[in-house]
Write a structure and sequence with these properties.
Strand order of the largest sheet: 2-1-3-4-5-6-7
Strand content: over 45%
Largest sheet: 7 strands, mixed
Number of helices: 1
Structural class: mainly beta
Helix content: 10-25%
Number of strands: 7
Radius of gyration: 18 Å
Order of helices and strands: HEEEEEEE
Shape: elongated
Number of domains: 1
Length: 164
């Protein structure tokens, strides 16, 4: 192994030891996940700070920045910026959900969803994608297929749909 590789491995190990120390155990300012359950903190914990999900990360919620391939939260309200391939929030989300393929919020969403497919039970803000779906909404959808199941200007409409 080269000197640079040993240094990188050493830094990663030091980061794991430092972050998982008992002093920081209550704050959880950083989450690093290869895939659940191979992550620094268990899936039932909330992360406040930065969550890095290399393949698949799962936590109760997050406040801050959520970045990775598949980002999944299960409870409470997540708040902040999310970037990746797929974002799944089983509860509420406020902020910018910016996943390339899928943004899915089972609960209430406030903010901006941008990706190929955007879904929210209730959306307040802007959905920008190829297919946008909302059970009900206060805001605007921009995309090829825009669906607002209840209360929209149109139940389904191309290019733009809205509900005020």
């Amino acid at each position: 192994m080269s000197g640079k590789s040993r240094l990188l491995v050493g830094l990663v190990v030091a980061m794991f030891v430092f972050i998982s120390s008992p002093v920081l155990a209550e704050d959880h300012p950083v989450q690093l996940s290869l895939f659940n359950p191979v992550q620094l903190f268990p899936e039932d914990d909330t992360i406040t700070g930065i969550r890095l999900n290399l393949i698949y990360g799962k936590n109760a919620s997050f406040t801050g920045i959520d970045w990775g391939m598949v980002n999944h939260t299960t409870q409470g309200k997540s708040l902040g910026y999310q970037q990746g391939m797929v974002g799944i929030a089983d509860a509420d989300f406020t902020g910018w959900q910016n996943n390339y393929f899928v943004n899915y919020v089972k609960g209430d969403f406030e903010g901006l969803q941008s990706g190929a497919f955007n879904y929210a039970n209730y959306a307040h803000g802007l959905q920008l994608g190829i297919i946008n779906y909302s059970g009900s909404m206060k805001g605007v959808q921009l995309g090829f297929v825009n669906i607002i199941k209840q209360g929209g200007q149109f139940p389904i409409f191309p290019f733009v749909n809205w509900s005020l």
